[in-house]
Design goal:
By secondary structure, this protein is of the alpha/beta class. 28% of the residues lie in helices and 36% in strands. The structure holds guanosine-5'-monophosphate (5GP).
């Protein structure tokens, strides 16, 4: 079991509706040590790739993206989900259906922050149906830039985002891949990415 899977078992809570709550270290309170470990894990998995920019989407991807930006010494851009009154830049615009908020979100990046010569590593906290990832890919392509890879903290393997992106030929790396989870028993199964096996575990966090 890797460090992120351990952390999920210690601190995650499974909610009804196939939702894993990780507010304790990723989505609300941020465990910087885990972010640092994830950033180094992505560096290991994308070894040999030239990366000129990290791209994520607000809000939960930003912490992980900044540490990765520090390691690669490249800028970090986060796509916004709404227009801000004080921005006069023209924008690349895409759309993504939000799994957690059950609505379409606009996804925007100001044109000066993505350029045709950029080689981009996309990162995000979760991958479920791949809506957010596909919107970010769309923005990169609108800019004429290249997607070098996609780094995800937690992939929900029972949803189709991961298999779609892999079938489309993207280099996708997810640190933890959930094969299944059960909110009633608080048990989770991770894909063993080295052995391509599935392991079963019970979450330890109290029911909150
Ligand atoms: P997708 O766009 O791939 O369908 O969903 C990914 C987005 O939905 C992530 O950015 C994340 O915000 C949210 N999300 C999807 N499933 C979960 C989940 O089980 N737990 C949490 N905390 N967020 C999720």
């Amino acid at each position: 079991m890797n460090f992120l899977e351990e952390k999920i078992i210690q601190n995650g809570v499974i909610r009804e509706g196939n939702i894993l709550k990780v507010d304790n270290f990723l989505n609300h309170q941020i465990d910087i040590e885990i972010m640092r470990q994830m950033a180094y894990e992505f560096q290991r998995r994308f070894k040999g790739e030239t990366i000129t920019k990290i791209l994520t989407i607000e809000a939960s991807g930003i912490a992980m993206a900044t540490l990765l930006g520090l390691i690669y010494n490249v800028p970090v851009v986060f796509a916004k989900k709404s227009e801000t009154m004080n921005s006069t830049d023209t924008k690349y615009v895409s759309q993504a259906y939000s799994f957690t908020h059950k609505r379409m979100n606009k996804v925007l990046v100001s044109k000066p922050y993505l350029n045709a010569e950029d080689k981009i590593l996309i990162v995000d906290d979760f991958l479920a149906d791949g809506e957010a990832a596909h919107a970010l890919i769309d923005l990169v392509h609108q800019a004429g830039a290249q997607v070098v890879g996609i780094g995800i903290a937690i992939e929900k393997g029972q949803q189709q985002g991961g298999s779609k992106l892999r079938a489309e030929g993207y280099h996708l790396e997810s640190i933890a891949i959930i094969e299944s989870m059960d909110w009633k028993t608080q048990t989770i199964q991770f894909r063993n990415q080295e052995k391509q096996e599935v392991g079963n575990a019970k979450l330890k966090a109290s029911w909150v």
